[in-house]
Amino acid sequence: MLGHSEEPIRLRVPSGSISAVRSKIRFVSARSSAIVWEWTPFILVSSYFVFSTCIYMVCSEKMIEVFWYVYMLTNTYVSMVTVLEAVLSIAATRESRNRVNKVAGNDFKSGSGPWPTPDDQLPILDLIIVAYLPNERDIIMDRVEYLCTKIVYPVDRIRVNCLYNTPVDIEPLESELAGLMDTYEQLRVIKVPNSKSKADNLNYFFTLDTGADIIAIFDADHYPHPHNPRWAAEGFMADSEVGIVQGRCIIYNSRDSWLTRLIAIEFDKIYAVSHPGRAIMMDFGLFCGSNGYWRAELLKSHKMHGEMLTEDIDSALRAVQKNVKAIHEINAVSYELAPSEFQGFWKQRLRWAQGWAQASLVHMPMVWGQPEEGTRSFTKRFGIFSLLAVRETSYYLITQYTCLVLSFIILDFPKTPLALARMIFFPYPLSVWFFVISVACLMGTLVITWRVRSEFISAGMMVIFSIFYPFYLVVMGMIGLYGHARQVVAYSNWNPTART
Q1: Are 243 and 294 in contact (CB under 8 A)?
Q2: What are the two backbone dihedrals, phi and then psi, of residue 2, each rounded to the nearest 5 degrees?
Q3: Start and end of every Glycosyltransferase 2-like domain (predicted)?
């Protein structure tokens, strides 16, 4: 009717439907963001390889020669430093063997007989095993019982502490763990409240007044040698200035796969050769995260920084920054598991690579800055520079050389294996000298590693390692680049290493 306005027609949508649509949009958005976040590092690294290879394909012959000599010189430097560390480690190894022979000659009798320190004067020790229970549910009971029954250390001077966290209750395992305290008087099982990491577990323990003189940290997959704590304790007793004693880690599942064979030899090379040699050459040792002993008051004030991706690397470098004296005790042996499949190895090493990249950025000022107390020698500064800057840069040198070789192959594909070897190793007049020096350094390092190999390493494994080591370095270079790319995008989604 004229003069009457018509009401607009409104479409009524149930509020529940709107909420459902919004929820789906948020889910799709979050999922898409997660996929981009996950795949961006892969795209960055892939682009790096493609771009670098293409650049070499269009470079002049003179520029290619310059690049090649730069890569060879840096490789020669790293090889010579590595073999020098190995040579210097011989003295530490010989001393360790002499101490073992001296103690073994007394048949490891109890009391003060074979050991420098009488039992009743040994430091009180808190031995910590840290576990994320859902991941280590199958091994935790075995490890705790091993520590309580096999470790040779006065029971009244050691406490075995099982610190664990779990997002969900795991029964009857948790009750069984707690029940072990009735069987072993030296055992303490602690479920850490509101913990989401190894750092949270440890920092909670550091708030407790336990009266310990020394604190030892072990991951849940470790089997410390029965005399491991005694060797570490003697290290502290021999030198009051020692703040950290780092033991030797050995891979005991070396025969599980080709990968564990490589890792086992790598660990022998790192813990029995490189670490002791670097401590002598560069004037500082390193805490390595597990099988490490600290003076209790030092560690409690030091704490673990949970915001760091690898809190153990960060804690080690902060100790170096404070001029804490750390020694490597080769006789303090602990056996651990290596990932037997490439997927587990890849995830583990990616976390380490990104953790080292993050820690290197944070602690690089040690190279030019002064410590809080005392002074920092030029030798130590150079060692820190080599450990942080040179190591992180080496990933690019290795992969750039790989891209350079790829460009050679693409432009002039070799028709025989001999032609390929000549293309890779002998393209320029000085090639032979670089090749000879690098091979000599590698063989020297491996010979010294063979002298201190663990009981799980055979001659055949060493031969295989020697053949595949260059390719292993390329893989490690790729992992290092991937870790850098993840650090760029602030990637922090980690899966724990599987334990079985």
Answers
A1: yes
A2: -60, 135
A3: 214-436
Angstrom distance (rounded) from CA 200 to CA 64: 51
Three-class SS state of 129: strand
Nearest partner of 329 among 450, 255, 389, 245, judged by Cα: 245
Mean pLDDT of 213-218: 96
Residue 73 resides in a domain: no
| Pairing between β-strand 325-336 and β-strand 242-251 as defined by DSSP bridges | parallel
- Does position 34 have pLDDT exceeding 70, yes or no? no
Write the pLDDT tens digit of every residue in 123-137. Answer: 999 999 999 988 888
Angle at 63 between CA 61 and CA 69, to 5 degrees: 105
Domain contains 497: no
* Cis status of the peptide bond prior to 470, with omega within 30 of 0: no
Of 234, 263, 262, which Cα lies nearest the Cα of 247?
Answer: 234
> How far is the C-alpha of 77 from the C-alpha of 71, rounded, in Å?
10
Residue-wise pLDDT tens digits, 171-198: 899 999 999 999 999 999 999 998 888 9
Q: What is the pLDDT of residue 436?
A: 87
d(CA 338, CA 160): 24
Cα 105 to the chain's mean position, in Å?
35
d(CA 299, CA 292): 11
Question: Is residue 137 in some structural domain?
Answer: yes
Using CA atoms, how far residue 319 sits from 191, 246, 444, in Å, is 28, 13, 31
User: Is the bond preceding residue 123 a cis peptide, omega within 30 degrees?
Assistant: no
Per the structure block, which two tokens stand in for 355?
């953790």
Q: Does the structure show a pLDDT above 50 at 269? A: yes
Residue 421 lies in a domain: no
Q: Which domain holds residue 269?
A: 122-339
Name every residue whose Cβ is closer than 8 Å to that of residue 258 and which is 6 or more positions away in sequence. 464
- How many structural domains compose the chain? 1
Question: Can you tell me whether residue 181 is helix, strand or coil?
Answer: helix
Question: Quick one: three-class SS letters along 229-253?
Answer: HHHHHHHHHHCCCEEEEEEEEEECC
Give the CATH number, domain containing residue 240: 3.90.550.10
**3-17, 237-251, 264-278 — which is least confidently predicted?**
3-17
